[in-house]
Amino acid sequence: SILAAVTDLLNPRRPLAGRHAIVTSGPTQEPIDPVRYIANRSSGRQGHAIAAALAGLGARVTLVSGPVAQPDPPHVEVVRVETADAMLDAVRRALPADIAVFAAAVADWRVEQASVHKLKKTPGAAPPALVLAPNPDILATIAAGTPRPRLVVGFAAETDDVEANAAAKRVRKGADWIVANDVSPATGIMGGAENAVSIVSADGIEEWPRLPKDEVARRLARRIAAALA
Amino acid sequence: SILAAVTDLLNPRRPLAGRHAIVTSGPTQEPIDPVRYIANRSSGRQGHAIAAALAGLGARVTLVSGPVAQPDPPHVEVVRVETADAMLDAVRRALPADIAVFAAAVADWRVEQASVHKLKKTPGAAPPALVLAPNPDILATIAAGTPRPRLVVGFAAETDDVEANAAAKRVRKGADWIVANDVSPATGIMGGAENAVSIVSADGIEEWPRLPKDEVARRLARRIAAALA
Fold first, then answer.
1. Closest Cα to residue A88, out of A78, A99, A77, A102?
2. What region, left, alpha or beta, does residue A147 occupy, with left being phi > 0 and alpha being psi -120 to 50 degrees?
3. How do strand B132-134 and strand B109-111 relate by DSSP bridges?
4. Contact between chains at A35 and B105 (C-beta distance less than 8 A)
5. What's the pLDDT score for residue A123?
6. Which pLDDT score is estimated for A117?
7. When comparing pLDDT for A68 and B123, which is higher?
8. How far is CA B226 from CA B15, B143, B167, B174, in A?
9. Is residue A164 within a helix (H) or strand (E), and if so which, with residue range?
10. Contact: A157, B118; criterion CB under 8 Å
11. Omega cis (within 30) before A147
């Protein structure tokens, strides 16, 4: 009802009421043949938690997710995809949006000619060479596209020079913010329950302490609500 | 107790009491760099169901599993691994065994030089070429090794000439049986709840109807118990 909508908009606990957020999460899988694929490591925990946190602040949320074992967050529309191409299509179909958070670990490359038949291992023969082709850059495409979400947030999973790489990525991709994290195996962040991120914006770099991924998500959602207020 | 052990051995509903079975399940993941990997599609459903079914017939079961979202089957010791090398190690450490069922979808190849640092996507530059190296052949290695399990069962996931490929594989690998199935995308078997398999042995080929994966597992466990009786 109109009354409920107005109440929602005035409710300080639902500051994102009336906003549409698109969140991507999980890995993408790029087929080599019917049984093999290339993928990025990603549990989808952080992306799914962000979708849940944005919904918790009242946003209508479309979550575009690669293959993950996470349960669907409540009150979120989930679109399941496999490849980077399909993820970009699903994000485009979900536009327009006020907020886009690209937390998925999209494979940078796909196999140029995926085989319809299972590649056979021939005893004694050399392994096949995989010719890779670049995948679409979802963050850069949406940040440069029309209609552009008002706030475009990318992620940078790095193992070296985390903040410098993230700051360069923010400019190169046309994102408003980059959430940067160190995914070196020693950190245990990949697949773990905690995350230690820095928020890179035009204003500089804000380092957050190591926190549960749910708490990182809630902080990020509150910061997004403040930016759009 | 000795009494319980004797009762177990004489119990017609626990015909595998006193036997040790090793089962592999799920995919293996072969790292490209800290965030990327090559894998085979495999939900682990069929392998986990086989482990549960063998335990249900009284066997002591060691389940060596790649990364899957399946819950651990009850009364089964689960060893988690990531790569084919680690899976072979875990199987070797679990020997001796009476029964070995290799249901995992082991990656045939790994990346020869996995990078410790995340490969960077350089704008304008060609994608990296991945040089692949053959992985150890777990089925052939265990079937030819010492101590050899009395019954060695392999799987053949094929998209073409399923039974002919499986029969050739049985001989080439030194397996006693091959469980062959057609994983063409149109079958919906990959990741699905049902399976349609053929059992290839020295006696010939036995085609089973399309059945829930749990029921395929129970039939296979009963057939294994009969073979060892």
1. A102
2. beta
3. antiparallel
4. yes
5. 66
6. 79
7. A68
8. 8, 20, 22, 21
9. helix A162-173
10. yes
11. yes
Mean pLDDT of A221-227: 97
Q: How many beta-carbon contacts under 8 Å exist across A and B?
A: 99
Catalytic pick from A11, A40, A165, A195? A40
CATH class of A2-115+129-228: alpha beta
For chain B (229 residues), the mean pLDDT of every run of 10, in chain order, is 64 90 96 88 94 98 95 96 97 98 93 79 72 91 97 90 90 96 78 88 93 96 96
Q: How far apart are CA B62 and CA B60, in angstroms?
A: 7
Nearest CB to A35; choose among B34, B36, B157: B157
Contact A183 B69 (CB under 8 A): no
Average pLDDT over residues A5-15: 72
Nearest to A117 among B34, B160, B172 (CB): B160
| Nearest Cα residue to B38 out of B165, B166, B133 | B133
Determine whether the interchain pair A117/B34 forms a contact, defined as Cβ–Cβ distance below 8 Å. Answer: no
The residue written with tokens 């020997």 in the block is B95
Structure tokens at B144: 């030819």
The CATH topology of domain B16-113+131-228 is: Rossmann fold (3.40.50)
Chain A residues with beta carbon closer than 8 angstroms to that of B40: 35-37
> How far, CA to CA in Å, does A165 sit from each of A162, A173, A189, A194, B134?
5, 12, 18, 22, 34
How far is C-alpha A224 from the chain's CA centre? Answer: 15
Active site residue A40: yes
**pLDDT of A118 higher than 90:** no
Contact in structure between B16 and B59 (CB atoms under 8 Å) = yes
CB within 8 Å of B212: residues ≥ 6 apart: B193, B194, B195
Q: Are B120 and B71 in contact (CB under 8 A)?
A: no
Among A42, A65, A112, A130, the strongest candidate for a mutation testing the B interface, having the largest count of B CBs within 10 A, is A130
Residue carrying structure tokens 């490591």: A41
Half-sphere exposure (Cβ direction) of A206: Cα atoms closer than 13 Å: 12
Please report, in angstroms and rounded to a whole number, the separation of the first and last CA atoms in chain B.
23
3-state helix, strand, coil in chain B (%, to 5): 30, 30, 40
Q: What is the mean pLDDT of residues A23-51?
A: 92
What are A152-203's pLDDT values in tens digits?
Answer: 999 998 878 888 899 999 999 999 999 998 877 777 777 778 898 999 999 9
Residue B215 token pair: 């029921």
DSSP B1-58: -HHHHHHHHH-TT-TTTT-EEEEEESB-EEESSSSEEEEE---SHHHHHHHHHHHHTT
